[in-house]
TrEMBL record:
The record marks 96, 182, 185, 298, 301 as: Interacts with tRNA. HAMAP family: DusA_subfam. It comes from Paraburkholderia lycopersici. PANTHER family: FMN-LINKED OXIDOREDUCTASES SUPERFAMILY PROTEIN. Residues 14-313 form the DUS-like FMN-binding domain. NCBIfam families: PRK11815.1, yjbN. Catalyzes the synthesis of 5,6-dihydrouridine (D), a modified base found in the D-loop of most tRNAs, via the reduction of the C5-C6 double bond in target uridines. Specifically modifies U20 and U20a in tRNAs. Signal peptide: none annotated. FMN binds at residues 16-18, 69, 138, 170, 210-212, 232-233. Keywords: Flavoprotein, FMN, NADP, Nucleotide-binding, Oxidoreductase, RNA-binding, tRNA processing, tRNA-binding. Its EC number is 1.3.1.91. Its cofactor is FMN. This is tRNA-dihydrouridine(20/20a) synthase.
Amino acid sequence: MSATRQASPRRVSVAPMMDWTDRHCRSLHRFISRHTWLYTEMVTTGALLHGDVPRHLAFTPAEAPVALQLGGSEPEDLARAAKLGEQWGYDEINLNCGCPSERVQRGAFGACLMNEPQLVADCVKAMRDVVSVPVTVKHRIGVDAVEDYAFVRDFVGTIAEAGCEVFVVHARNAILKGLSPKENREIPPLKYDYAYQLKRDFPQLEIVINGGIKTLDEAEQHLQHVDGVMLGREAYHNPFVLADVDMRFYGATQAPITREQVEARLIEYCASEIARGTFLGAITRHALGLYRGVAGARGWRRVLSDSRKLAKADLAIFDEAREHLRVPDEIVE
């Protein structure tokens, strides 16, 4: 695998996560890793076509590369939204076919789209017709009680015929009734072998695996079978897991950044954002896990999540939080 797909820009990526992977979160991740492929939260076509486009799409060039994830099921609307995404500078347009939430189901998109592969193919073709950046699909391996590998194989085959070349496979079923989105990330069993088999059956496609991956050692194991690995909750709660990605998976030669260097960049970023009127807590909430595993990390989190302190917009809050950190190699959490 590594010999033939070394150049994949999605070798390691951070999943699109609602209410989490906003521009502040992506900026933090970009401080830690220059090459990790980043995704936006899912943005619905309705929000773009009838709402505040800059609020949903504005990001800084320093965050790139960034992919825009769209939610929708109408080919024409998705084409218009994809065009907006390209105009705003995104490097990829990704269609959500994996979210199982009831709100998304009511909009007739997300994981329920896996039951309509030809519609997804039409959506992909409509987007590809109007943009030059890659159009990709993120999906599950099955829906509800469908356990047969042939289901996801035929889904991918149908979408590939529409010109999609990159598939992000969350290697769990989506249970559309009876499980919350959180339970859908934990209860359906992981079947990594389904993603591996997709790569064997479609060697010409780029297959990225997602679901339950917590360490770079695990990522390395998966990359023996597929082209890319997508980290989700682990990258959010433990962002420093990305520190070794550039050297390990992208051939970077410079030493990984330290937590202290990340913090210094974050403070500079906070200063510039406060000057723009951004609430400090909107940024620090993404950095609560920066010192995860370091002695005193609980105190760091407590200070940086204190709403009264954050309301003062005083960057001295970082000094106070740092006072709780003791000898870095004294692991207590």
